[in-house]
Design goal:
275 residues; alpha+beta; 2 domains; seven-stranded antiparallel sheet; 10 helices; globular
Length: 275
Amino acid sequence: MGYTKPKETTRWHLENADLPNHGKTYTVVSHKSVIENTHQLLKDAGFVIQKEIYRANMNANVAQGIYHIYPSETTDQEISSERELGMMFAWTNSYDKSTRFQCAIGAYVAVCYNGMIAGDMMNFKRKHTGSADYDVKIHLADQIKNAEKHYKRIITDKNLMKTIELSKVKQAELTGILFIEEDLLDSQQVSCVKSELTKSTYNYSVDENSAWAFYNHVTHALKKAHPRDWMQDSQDFHDFMMATCISTSVHPIHDSIRELDEIIMEDLYVEVDNL
């Protein structure tokens, strides 16, 4: 995986980067065409781009675009009333054969810009061969067409994580698993998570002993990932957390409260029966 500090760059730099020449079997998907198609497709679908972020390695052989977007024509009340998360569209492209083109609808946390991408939303990865340039445009359009559905799924996942109790001890244990077993965090990212567990950089308006707090500590650390790895790492971590949240090792806060209420009521019934 390796740690390489990501470099934020400009749209102009990516659009003017030298194109590769890898022979007849390699199909160039230029950063310029991806950016232009993304802008046009988002506009045609009624999305407003509120912020665009570009990152790349030094020679722009690996590039990434992240767009904070808003569906100006939405009629969905859940989407229009959501305040904690904003909608995000992201893509990764390369000129050095190190990664396939990929794109996905996701979300970002408004207070910190941490990214969220769920596994089934990033189901298109295209090698730079054959009709790759055409296929990429088709899939960009498909992702954008399903943006609201994907976004609502992430809102649901966020709301679930806010109800899951996760002690600091459990969070530390999961950090170790992400580092050693899952290979999702490197040593510097682990140090970042450790610092966040001690004193969070942002106020997520949630109990610090919750899955949602831990999720943000890790996605904050994942900002340090190389542009080549960030989308895949974000997806893998999201899926890891969803599996963790539904496992028997953690329990919803609301369920714990409900169980306590049931114990209290049972005691009351016993007291009444004994009168």
